[in-house]
Amino acid sequence: MKRAFRIALLAALPLWGAQVRIGVLGLFHPAAVTLAAKGIEIGGEYIELHDAAEVKAAGNRVAVTVGGRERRGPRLTASGPPVRARIAGKIDRSYQGSLEITAREGVLFVVVTMDRELAVAAVAASEMPHASPEALKALAVAARSYYAAGRRHNDFDFCDTTHCQLLKEAAAEGESAARQTRGQVLFYQGGIVGALHFGSCGGHTFAASDVGMDGGSYPFFAVACEACARHPEQWEARLPVRTVERTEAARLELARRFGWNRVASNDYAWERTSDGVILRGKGHGHGVGLCQRGAEGMARSGQRAESILDHYFPMTSIGR
Ligand SMILES: [Zn+2]
Ligand SMILES: [Zn+2]
């Protein structure tokens, strides 16, 4: 046992570096999660796990049943990697880190602590699963920069949705992109850029202020995007509202009211109809920072990751 632990520790050493704490599964507001891990700790007791453990929220406490016996405590930690979490009928995901669970009013809150490089690999693989290597490398640098620029939540650093960065499971392509760009982040006037990225644009990106977003220390700049200008992804939406405002906050508000992704981007024209508005738009996502579709287009035409980053993040430099 002791020896196995030492070997695991040594194997993990080259990966040690900055850690990120990512709030996961929050979209599901889970009351129960099934865990598979090496072991769990609750109420000062460590339990080695041989089978999956059922974790439930009991008010503001966490309850877990292992081997027919229930334990309760203010928090549960599960040691990995990997730790596998399943919400029946909804999601089954493996995380390359350790996991901490607390409860509030019958809902479980799950936070994964993982090596930042592993998170970068997972983000790259989640956001652009079939991308060319140079596009993935550019995305990996942007993703790392975003994490390195500072936390975005109070109870943890980042979430696992597009609010921060989509985090699923790492794939080989993502790991390779993270490894080849290891430690690289974007700098602007001496500070790390919270580099944003999104699915596709309508032929040009937006400056953060164009859509009412706060870019932090970097203003972001509107740049032309060749691949999207040639073949934009088009969408249309009818909404029962009287007017729309072209800001990211307004778009997210419409998403909350009428369904995720109804207003797919901030690049649209709109007109009133008898019973609301009709929007005709181009692209997917907020439109600020690196356009993933455009980055893929640049990579396919032979451009390197450095040129892609330079294009979507003008005035920045790559450093460590
Ligand atoms: Zn977030
Ligand atoms: Zn684009």
Q: Widest sheet: strand order?
A: 4-3-8-11-12-1-13
> What letter string, H or E per element, gives the SSE order?
HEEEEEEEEEEEEHHEHEEEHEHEEEHHE
Mean pLDDT: 92
> What is the beta-strand fraction?
25-35%
Any low-confidence stretches, pLDDT <50, length ≥5?
1-15
* Count of DSSP H/I helices: 8
Beta strands, count = 21
Structural domains: how many? 2
Looking at the structure, what is the overall shape? Answer: globular
> What Rg do the Cα atoms give?
22 Å
Oligomer: single chain
* Biggest sheet layout: 7 strands, mixed
Structural class comes to alpha+beta
Distance between the termini: 38 Å
Helical residue percent band: 25-40%
* Small ligands present: zinc ion
Polypeptide structure, described:
The structure is a single chain. By secondary structure, this protein is α+β, with helices and mostly antiparallel strands. It has 2 domains: 99 residues, no CATH class; 136 residues, no CATH class. The chain is built from 8 helices and 21 strands. A 7-stranded mixed β-sheet has the order 4-3-8-11-12-1-13. Helix 3 runs antiparallel to helix 7. The two termini are 38 Å apart. The relative contact order is 0.13. The protein binds zinc ion (2 copies). One zinc ion binds next to strand 13.
Task: Give the secondary structure arrangement, pairings included.
Layout: H1 2-12, E1 19-24, E2 32-36, E3 39-42, E4 45-48, E5 53-58, E6 61-66, E7 69-73, E8 75-79, E9 83-87, E10 91-95, E11 97-104, E12 107-115, H2 116-127, H3 133-148, E13 158-159, H4 172-180, E14 185-188, E15 191-192, E16 197-198, H5 226-230, E17 234-239, H6 248-258, E18 268-273, E19 276-282, E20 290-291, H7 292-300, H8 305-312, E21 317-319
Parallel strand pairs: 1-13, 16-20
Antiparallel strand pairs: 1-12, 2-5, 2-9, 3-4, 3-8, 5-6, 6-7, 8-11, 9-10, 11-12, 14-15, 14-21, 17-19, 18-19
Helix pairs in contact: 2-3, 2-4, 3-4, 3-7, 3-8
This protein binds zinc ion (ZN) (2 copies).
